[in-house]
Fold MKS transition zone complex subunit 1.
Amino acid sequence: MADGWNTDTGEAVYRSQDVVKNLKIKVRIERVTSTAALSQHFQQQVLSQQEGGDIELKTLSSPAQKGDNEDEVVVGWQEKIFSQYEMELFQTEAVCQTPLDRQYHKEVKALIKAKSRRSRRIFTYTDHDRYTNCLPLHQLEHTDLLTTTKTGPTFLAERMATVKNRRQERRTMDSSIPKTRIINWEPTEEFVRTSRVVNNAMQTMHIMGDLGPPGRLGQKENECLLITIKTDGHGTIVVKPDFNKGREPYRIVAEGENREIWRLTFENVSKSMKPEEKNKEQNMYKDLYVRHKEFLSGLVGQDFEMPPAGTLRYLMNGEIVSAQGFEYDNLYIHFFLELPNNWSSLPSQSLSEVTQTCRTKSLEKEDVAFFSYPFTFEALYMKQKDGEEGIPQWPVIYFKVLSLDFWQRYRTEGYGYLLFPATPGKHTMTCHTWRPVQTGTVSAMKRFFIGGSAELEDDSYVRTPGTFKGDRLSRFGFCTVTTGSVTFNLHCIQQARAFVDAAVLKRRRQKVFEHLGGFSQQGAVCNILGKKKQKIHLTSKPLCTEILEV
């Protein structure tokens, strides 16, 4: 506060569950200088010296009417109160060009006939008035609400002042979006100033004041913006400045030679709800939410779609986050899913995808390409038949990183693979890659000048291929070089009937395949070792018998 005045002229944001049409604001303006203050000062002196003085009160008293030095009115949301200028303007039917002007003409005629004008100095501009769009910028430049620092309108305020008109002018004749140049890669400064503006659907209302001297009301240069109210229709109400709430009034300095000072106070006088009505409304909302929840439950259903017995459904929602550490720019990734034995996928499931081409940016001395490429894989695991041996395998995602330059030359930057996580939940995994190289300088020059490099005929060769049936896989003499790394975000879900049965029976099992019929990797290993031990025992028994017979 400064000298008894409220200097906090910033906007305040409120949230309300009630409809905005119930908003009521009591506005009061009062002149504190000029003839009114001077007459009050002399009146006090005369009253104190009335016994011995010869001063006449008639020469010092102001013959002004009630609305000349003060005015008070209760304003509702989007309630139209005409100014003296509008009262004179809309009296003539010839100046009415729009249906709204003709409606105002009828209302002004009715007010003049009934002599029921509510206010002489306070009036409003509603959201439908022609002045509402351009008024805030104009008035902020010429209105001197007392603030600690003199601030001008910002760039955003200037653009928002005409955003509605500009949007209408840019709209095509058929109200369609232009098909050409949807993205402007080299925007000019003028394009930035006219296009990059946030356009929220806000309804606006301005409460104005006519601060002209008595007898000269209705002049546009004496109009002053007092209060601005905005709402988005979803319960958000923005008021600038904030309600007084018992604090000091706002100070307004009028334009002109006299620089008269006015006092502004306004409060929220909306009718409060009675406790019975408030409880009734809350119960109605609760009932509405319950009905909506029941409706959504009816659409979704109570039972999840369960896989067949002895089947595990594995759903992975993944994201290729980034790739870093590679030699060339403009990277893209080609990846595919390999399903081991006893795994299957839906017929409509695509098992191979390619990302977009992504440029790299320098980040902590590393060239990083951020893909943010989402993908989804769904696979089903069927329980192995009794008598089958082997350890169950998880699906594998094989991927290779490639680069594409300006001349459409592509190069293989690295190979890698990713195993499906054995546990559900979120996993962040970084996979390192390598690529094959050929000895000598010819291969390096070919890669640099014309693109292309040594490639794998089978991408699954980065690990033991699923089709390999031999005892040993030799990579002796195979030359490789370490390249970069690729980061994945994985969100995994596992679903099986055995999980529900285990929850009912309160059995705590740690591995997925244990729920699918008591088969686990550890159990499989023990089963295989037991069978091998039994075979060794059977083959060694005849030999021991022959030795004993000898």
User: Anything to note?
Assistant: The radius of gyration is 41 Å. Residues 1-45+67-81+118-147+199-272 form one domain. Confidence is low (pLDDT under 50) at residues 55-64, 140-150, 164-177, 543-550.
